[in-house]
Description:
By secondary structure, the chain is of the alpha/beta class. It contains four helices and five strands, in the order βαβαβαββα.
Amino acid sequence: MEARKDGLILIVEDEDAIRLTLRDYLRKKGYQVLVASDGVGAIKQLLDFNIEIILTDYRMDILGGDYWIKFLKKYCPDKHIIITSGFLRPDFDIPYEVIYKPFDYSDLEKKVQNILSLDGPHAGI
């Protein structure tokens, strides 16, 4: 079964090169993608659009880290969330799947496909 590609993905990443490369990669694969450079920009996108997947960096200068995770847990329980990080230890207690940088974009796409092919919050994670 082919995964849907109509689920809107929000990429939250403060490093321009990573954010734009991820956006371009996923768009070329047929996905609908929005971007934000920090947690504040992400909140604006979440208010304006029906986001299905949030692909977010953990460590950002503006509204990142533990505060961002607390926000996501409280206000986005119905969203599929994947955290990207080059700094988190594997034993760090976080309620979402973590993909460690650098990561293979095709592996990320498989995770996105898996999420979009299933129903319910955090499906496929």
